[in-house]
């Protein structure tokens, strides 16, 4: 076990029981012409964390620790997408409609793939999740339990939506959660900052937060 300097106090990193979760680093959120763009967001903010996220993934791969990738993704017939979700936001294009990278948030479409620099390698778990949280309708909890994972390190987008929802879901299932603050981003900087404060408040009511450099300095 290694104590990682973190807020609100050091995080106990337990090799062999810790997995990295990279949330939704898919083209739909990060590149022009995708779902995030269709909602009027500045996607360049999200692209800026790709190098730090790649370094974080490399650290886990070097140590042969598990890496899990998620994608927000729906079946082609949208049977797993509530109509309320399709309607929400008055976007220029709705979920399932055809954009510059194929059908938005639909499994198998070009826009639904993880960006090239973070592409999963063989043996890594890739979860297609219909909700914001990574445990809803995915079976991930059972997969993690089967390999005795108790600690989760989080990266990805967006901080206050899918990352925070997944982290809270993980917290409720008993995982010890650490968010890497420069490997997560929001379309709204103030929401990222507020989310970090919510996580660490009250003695880490949701978990811990630390920069990538602190993790890199403490681990092999
Ligand atoms: C959103 C996500 N923001 N991955 N999804 O709709 O955070």
Automatic annotation (TrEMBL):
InterPro entries: Isochorismatase-like_dom, Isochorismatase-like_hydrls, Isochorismatase-like_sf. The keyword ATP-binding does not apply. Coiled coil: none annotated. Pfam families: Isochorismatase. The keyword Glycoprotein does not apply. Keywords: Hydrolase. It comes from the Bacteria. One of its GO terms (molecular function) is hydrolase activity. Residues 18-206 form the Isochorismatase-like domain. PANTHER family: FAMILY HYDROLASE, PUTATIVE (AFU_ORTHOLOGUE AFUA_2G08700)-RELATED, PEROXYUREIDOACRYLATE/UREIDOACRYLATE AMIDOHYDROLASE-RELATED. This is Cysteine hydrolase. It comes from Devosia nanyangense.
